[in-house]
Specification:
This protein has about 100 residues and is mainly alpha-helical. It has one domain. Helices cover about 55% and strands about 10% of the residues. It contains 3 helices and 2 strands; from the N terminus they run ααββα. A two-stranded antiparallel ribbon has the order 1-2. A hairpin with a 2-residue loop joins strand 1 and strand 2. The longest helix has 21 residues. The protein is elongated, with a radius of gyration of 20 Å. It comes from Pseudokineococcus basanitobsidens. Keywords: Membrane, Transmembrane, Transmembrane helix. This is Lycopene cyclase domain-containing protein.
Length: about 100
């Protein structure tokens, strides 16, 4: 049960990280955590929602991964769009240290 809890926490942490620091690496982290979740979620699967074969089916616990992966992919896509279009938020751009630009003299 501890492994299940650790993998679930990893999936949640990877999803949160994908929102805070979106990008391809974050999507890969969520996907890896999702695959790990599918491998260990047996003890907490819940009811079978759709039977694929007599020994396989889609369970409630399996449904945690697609939304997490969707969040990571959407966050990465939005971040990429912002980088390509430039920041049009009206806020002044900041340098690498986070300092606002100074007016030219």
């Amino acid at each position: 049960m501890v492994v299940v809890a650790v993998v679930l926490a990893a999936l949640a942490a990877a999803t949160l990280a994908s929102v805070l620091r979106p990008g391809p690496l974050a999507v890969v982290a969520v996907a890896a955590a999702g695959v790990a979740w599918w491998l260990v979620n047996g003890p907490v699967e819940g009811p079978v929602l759709h039977v694929v074969s007599p020994s396989h089916g889609l369970t409630v616990a399996d449904l945690l991964v697609p939304p997490a992966l969707a969040v990571a992919v959407v966050a990465a896509a939005l971040a990429r769009r912002r980088r390509r279009a430039g920041d049009r938020s009206g806020r002044p751009r900041r340098d690498a240290r986070g300092a606002a630009p100074t007016a030219p003299r």
